[in-house]
Design a protein that fits this description.
45% of the residues lie in helices and 19% in strands. By secondary structure, the protein is α/β, with parallel strands linked by helices. The protein has a single domain, classed as 3-Layer(aba) Sandwich (Rossmann fold). Strands 1, 2, 3, 4, 7 and 8 form a six-stranded parallel β-sheet that branches. It has a two-stranded antiparallel ribbon with strand order 5-6. A hairpin with a 5-residue loop joins strand 5 and strand 6. Helix 1 crosses helix 2, helix 1 runs parallel beside helix 7 and helix 3 packs parallel to helix 5. The chain is globular, with a radius of gyration of 15 Å. It starts with a strand and ends with a helix.
C-alpha cells in the first residue's frame, strides 16, 4: 500500500497547470503539497467532486482537469462514472484514493470494500483507460504516460493515510480559495 501524501507528492511532481478538484483529506494534503496549483476545494460536497471535475473539463476543454476523489466519496455518486464516460472529455483524469473507508465520516468501512473493483466500474461505465496502483514505483513509472493520455482516464490508488496536515476549514469554505481558483481560470482563458 502507498501513503496518500506520497502519491500526491508524486502527482505534484508531474503537475503543470492542470485544474485540480480534490476532496476531504486529499484537499488538505494537496493544498500543503502544491499550494500554487489551481485548486477547486470540493470539501463539503461528498460525492460531487467527479461531477464538478466533469463540468470544469467540459467548460475548459483547453485545460487538463484532475479530480482527486475518495472511494467513499465516489460511492456516493457512482452515476458520475457513466456521465463522464458518455461526455468523454479527453482532458479528464480521475484519481481515486482507495482506502476502504468513509474517512471523512469517522473511518467507517465502505460496503464490499474487499470485493468492489473501482477500475472495473470505470471500464464498464465506458472510461477510455483504467489503472490500479498499490506500489509507488509502479505509479511513478506510469504517471507521465497517464498524464498525457486522452481521457477520460481512471486511476485507482490503493492507499493508507500518510502524514497529518493542517486542516484550515476557514480557507476551505471561505472566499479566498474560490477567488484564487477564479483567477486561475481567468488566466487560462486570457
Amino acid at each position: 500500500m502507498m501513503k496518500r501524501d506520497q502519491c500526491l507528492k508524486l502527482i505534484a511532481k508531474y503537475h503543470r497547470d492542470e485544474l485540480v478538484v480534490p476532496v476531504y483529506q486529499a484537499t488538505f494534503e494537496w493544498l500543503a503539497i502544491k499550494p500554487e496549483a489551481p485548486t477547486f476545494t470540493a470539501v463539503g460536497a461528498m460525492g460531487q467532486a467527479s461531477s464538478l471535475a466533469l463540468g470544469f473539463a467540459l467548460g475548459a476543454p483547453d485545460r487538463r482537469v484532475m479530480v482527486l476523489d475518495g472511494d467513499g466519496s465516489l460511492l456516493m455518486n457512482l452515476g458520475s462514472l457513466v456521465s463522464i464516460a458518455n461526455a468523454a472529455p479527453g482532458n479528464l483524469l480521475h484519481f481515486v484514493c482507495e482506502n476502504g473507508t468513509y474517512e471523512a465520516n469517522g473511518g467507517h468501512p465502505i460496503p464490499a470494500k474487499d470485493k468492489v473493483s473501482f477500475t472495473g466500474l470505470a471500464l464498464a461505465a465506458g472510461y477510455r483507460e483504467a489503472h490500479e496502483f498499490s506500489e509507488l514505483d509502479a505509479l511513478e513509472a506510469a504517471l507521465p504516460g497517464i498524464l498525457r493520455a486522452r481521457g477520460p482516464v481512471f486511476i485507482d490508488l490503493k492507499i493508507v493515510p500518510g502524514e497529518t496536515y493542517p486542516q484550515d476549514w476557514a480557507y476551505m469554505h471561505g472566499t479566498e480559495s474560490r477567488e484564487k481558483f477564479r483567477k486561475a481560470l481567468r488566466q487560462s482563458h486570457a
